[in-house]
Amino acid sequence: HKNIIKYWEDIYALVRDMGDFLYIYDKVPFSHAGVKTFDYRELMNNNGFFDKNKIKACRDYPLSFLKTSVQDNLLDKANELLQKEYFKFNIDLNIKLRIISTIFNLDKEIIMLLQRFDYPFMVPKIIIYNSTERSFSVEDYITIALLNAMGMDIIILSPTGYNNIENGIKNSLFDIHNLEDVRFDLVISKEISREIKRRKSNQETSLLDKFKSWIK
Description:
Layout (H helix, E strand, L loop, with lengths): L3 H14 L4 E4 L26 H5 L11 H16 L9 H12 L3 H9 L8 E5 L8 H13 L2 E5 L32 H26 L1
Parallel strand pairs: 1-2, 2-3
Helix pairs in contact: 3-6, 4-6
């Protein structure tokens, strides 16, 4: 909006009303890949798709603590990324390994959203705020496609109007809504920044409480 206060009010209303079913990325790139040291034979079947049993038996598999249904859904959706045309780049062996590496390194807050996902009632939302010229990484495109395939709603706010998702995801898979104006280096408002910090603090406290209960 030309009225920047209205812009922040709209965003804050969305952030405030989603409760714990929202996560905000306020920096780009936002995904973590880790070190790709996998032997593809540890991960894939003879048809070139991810083998869930092999992956779960992999020495670097970090998601065994999740509900089995969540683990299976994640790995099924990883295979969906190989079959459905999500990306503007070719899916070779390197990309396949980067997909698994990205899944293995999802933010703990995203893991918590997946664990509490209640499909019939509350769909988690992801907001990505990018006010700079920084581009999404390949891992960012993988994260976006994966969470979309899992059923999450994703909103990308780009006050500059620069390309971001357009560079890596097929155009048919997202909608663009242009507002009245563009702004450069628009720092996220103090109210929203406080809300982000409050959320992160609450999430860390929740994780600490769970850890304490496990110790007991």
